[in-house]
Structures are given as structure tokens and as C-alpha cells.
Design goal:
Layout: E1 3-8, E2 16-22, E3 25-32, E4 35-40, E5 54-56, E6 60-62, E7 69-71, E8 77-79, H1 88-91, E9 101-102, E10 104-107, E11 110-114
Antiparallel strand pairs: 1-11, 2-3, 3-4, 4-9, 5-6, 6-7, 7-8, 10-11
């Protein structure tokens, strides 16, 4: 893996996120109170783009389609898809799956992501 420059740290305010395409990988970089994190762009439930979702509880991304939540620090599923009512039928064939995460470091104000 090699670390790729994605942006200046100042480009993503705390509590915000930004989509990037790096070496054919679609990722989202999040700037949380505790630092920068990166995950795959698409929800592991039905592949909705998470850059349309919102950051909740300080460290989770909520999918805009079925409200699945993931911890962006680890990729772990916090709440699996639960909206609209009846989505649980699809969940019977779409088991919980964490998001892929990518190591991030900030050097001299530059956000670098390992792809």
C-alpha cells in the first residue's frame, strides 16, 4: 500500500466529510474530533453512496437510504438497515457487513490515505 495525498486538512472542517476517487477506489474521508478517518464510499447494504449520509453521534455515518449506521473509525456495523418498515425482508439475504476502512495520517497539514 502507498499513502496518497487527498487534500489539505483545512479543507474538511471537523464534523464534515468529503468524497475522493483514488486509484479507482471511491472513499470518504471524515474529519472527527479525534482525527481523520476513511472508509469505502458505498454502504455495504445496498451500495448507496454514503457521502449523501450524515455523521451522527460524533463517529458514525448513517446511510441515507435504509439508515444503517457504521462507526467510521473501525467500519463496524452499529445499526443494520432498519428503514422503511419491511426492509428486514431484504436483510435476510443481505447480512451485516462492515465498511472497508483505510489508514489515514496527517503530515504537515496534508491528509494522506493508504490505498
Amino acid at each position: 500500500m502507498s499513502a496518497q495525498f487527498v487534500c489539505e486538512a483545512s479543507e474538511i472542517p471537523v464534523g464534515e466529510k468529503k468524497f475522493f476517487l483514488i486509484d479507482k477506489e471511491s472513499i470518504i474521508v471524515y474529519h472527527l474530533e479525534e482525527g481523520f478517518f476513511a472508509t469505502q464510499r458505498y454502504c455495504s447494504h445496498t451500495f448507496a453512496p454514503l457521502d449523501g449520509g450524515k455523521i451522527v453521534d460524533g463517529c458514525q455515518i448513517q446511510c441515507p437510504f435504509h439508515r444503517a449506521r457504521f462507526d467510521v473509525r473501525t467500519g463496524a456495523v452499529v445499526i443494520w438497515a432498519n428503514f422503511p418498515p419491511g426492509i428486514q425482508v431484504l436483510n435476510a439475504v443481505r447480512n451485516e457487513k462492515p465498511l472497508k476502512t483505510y489508514p489515514v495520517r496527517v503530515t504537515d497539514g496534508r491528509v494522506m490515505v493508504e490505498i
